[in-house]
Design a protein that fits this description.
Length: 144
Amino acid sequence: MVAAAALACGLGIGMSPGFANVGVMLSAYRTIASGPVVAVVVYLISCAIAWHAIATEPTDTACTLDEERCVLYLRGRGASDLQARALARIAQGRTTEEICRELNVARGTVNAYRARGYTLLGIHTRRELAELLQHDTGVPAAAR
């Protein structure tokens, strides 16, 4: 990403005659930057974005893997992918509102997935769902 930004800035400075006329207006009467300065600023911003993308790592990889294991198990039991993801989050103890935000679905959809999932699995409560997933997938209760 950094190399692409450097190449783009270099090409912009060296090959594009219109790029040299770019400036940043502070007020109606004063321009403070010209083409090369803008190119360097774009390059530095690109470097910062690339560094942030490289430096940040997922913080909760274990829970993600455990959740994926639960989703695969639930799909094997007949749930759709989205329904399995909702059920896995229900077993983790997340609220309906949190699940709606995370999966970008309506509240009624989460409630329908919960009802159909409980019927599909032959259970009646969130606790039974959590115990079923713990027993059948080996995911420890603390990880959920």
